[in-house]
């Protein structure tokens, strides 16, 4: 599955929610990610960056 974050879309989750998913992923992995977990982490990170950027733009 390919992930492409949208800058301004209704599907965009809040950065805090995505951050919680990132923290949960790391906690469940015990600090060492498998290849699949690493791919999921990179997807979540891209989603978090897009969400954070959109939140800053909305606040401006």
- Cα-based radius of gyration, to the nearest Å: 12 Å
What profile does the largest beta sheet have?
Answer: none
Helix/strand order, N-terminal first: HH
Mean pLDDT: 87
**3D shape:** elongated
Report the portion of residues in β strands: under 5%
Helix/strand-derived category reads mainly alpha
Descriptive overview:
The protein has 60 residues and is mainly alpha-helical. α1 packs antiparallel against α2. The longest helix has 25 residues.
Q: What can be said about this structure in brief?
A:
The chain has helices at residues 15-29, 35-59. The chain has 60 residues and is mostly helical.
Q: How would you describe this structure in keywords?
A:
elongated, 2 helices, disordered N terminus
Q: How would the blueprint of this fold be written?
A:
Layout: H1 15-29, H2 35-59
Helix pairs in contact: 1-2
């Amino acid at each position: 599955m390919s992930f492409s974050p949208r800058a301004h879309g209704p599907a965009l989750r809040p950065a805090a929610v995505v951050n919680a998913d990132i923290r949960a992923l790391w906690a469940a992995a015990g600090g060492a990610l498998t290849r699949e977990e690493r791919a999921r982490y990179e997807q979540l990170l891209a989603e978090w960056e897009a969400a954070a950027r959109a939140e800053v733009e909305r606040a401006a």
